């Protein structure tokens, strides 16, 4: 009887030592895997650790449920912040483009001696000086709206900036030809 008790104690001790955490994860193909080693994305499905009293399965399930809800809320907030940032970047790019176009039109209107309007067929109709001044004011207001400030006009600056020099073309290397294969002999 005593031998059976000692054997039972040894077996019970071996089973309690053999308990370990078991982790479960699903791979890219959708197949579940189990291991005693933690893998990123895995979850504990069985643990050998003793839980404090009062922590039953239902309370752990509720805790995991609340954590999942919290994570979903954080994900939604991060997505909303990313979307807001993307919208701001798009608006900034659009505003920069509008500013550049308005500034170019303003510089053209100020440096031109005469202002014209193009018709449907590409015909130029020259406007009067009073209408040209009104157009220049409109373009100046567009620059003010799109850029926040109007660039200063320097009457001493050259009307046409110096063109940038064209770089010299690089020579194209000749292809390597196998002369033995190229001969017909």
Estimate the helix proportion, in percent: 40-55%
General shape: flat
- Structural class, by secondary structure, is mainly alpha
On the 0 to 100 scale, the average pLDDT is 76
Widest sheet: strand ordering = 2-1-3
Give me the Rg, rounded.
Answer: 39 Å
C-alpha end-to-end distance: 103 Å
Number of helical regions? 4
Description:
The chain has 185 residues and is mainly α. The chain has four helices and five strands. Strands 2-1-3 form a three-stranded antiparallel β-sheet, with no helix packed on it. It is flat and about 90 Å long. The termini are far apart.
Draw up the topology in text.
Elements lengths: L1 H17 L3 E5 L5 E4 L7 E4 L10 H55 L4 E3 L5 E3 L2 H19 L31 H4 L3
Antiparallel strand pairs: 1-2, 1-3, 4-5
Brief description of this entry?
The model has no long low-confidence stretch (mean pLDDT 76). Helix content is 51%, strand content 10%. It has 185 residues and is mainly α.
What are the defining features of this structure?
single chain; 3-stranded antiparallel β-sheet; 185 residues; two-stranded antiparallel ribbon; mainly alpha
């Amino acid at each position: 009887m005593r031998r059976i008790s000692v054997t039972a104690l040894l077996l019970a001790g071996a089973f309690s030592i053999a308990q370990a955490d078991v982790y479960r994860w699903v791979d890219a193909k959708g197949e579940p895997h189990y291991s005693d080693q933690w893998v990123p994305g895995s979850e504990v499905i069985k643990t050998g650790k003793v839980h404090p009293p009062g922590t039953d399965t239902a309370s752990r399930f509720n805790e995991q449920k609340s954590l999942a809800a919290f994570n979903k809320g954080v994900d939604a907030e991060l997505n909303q912040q990313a979307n807001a940032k993307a919208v701001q970047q798009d608006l900034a790019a659009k505003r920069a483009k509008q500013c550049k176009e308005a500034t170019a039109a303003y510089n053209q209107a100020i440096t031109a001696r005469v202002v014209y309007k193009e018709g449907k067929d590409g015909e130029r109709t020259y406007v009067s000086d009073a209408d040209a001044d009104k157009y220049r004011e409109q373009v100046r207001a567009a620059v003010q709206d799109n850029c926040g400030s109007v660039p200063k006009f320097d009457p001493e600056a050259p009307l046409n900036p110096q063109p940038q020099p064209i770089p010299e073309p690089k020579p194209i290397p000749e292809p390597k030809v196998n002369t033995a294969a190229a001969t017909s002999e």
